[in-house]
Amino acid sequence: MNLVMFGPPGSGKGTQAERIRNRYRLRHISTGDLLRDAVARKTELGRKVESILASGALVSDDLVLALMRDAIAQVGNDAQYAGWLLDGFPRTIGQAEGLDAILADLKQEIGALVVLDVKREALVDRLSGRRTCTQCKTVFHVKVNPPQVDGVCDKCGGALVQREDDRPETIAKRLEVYAAQTQPVLAHYRGRLPVHEIDGELPVDEVTRRIECVLA
Ligand code: AMP
Question: Is 27 a pocket residue for ligand 1 (Cβ < 6 Å)?
Answer without folding.
Answer: no
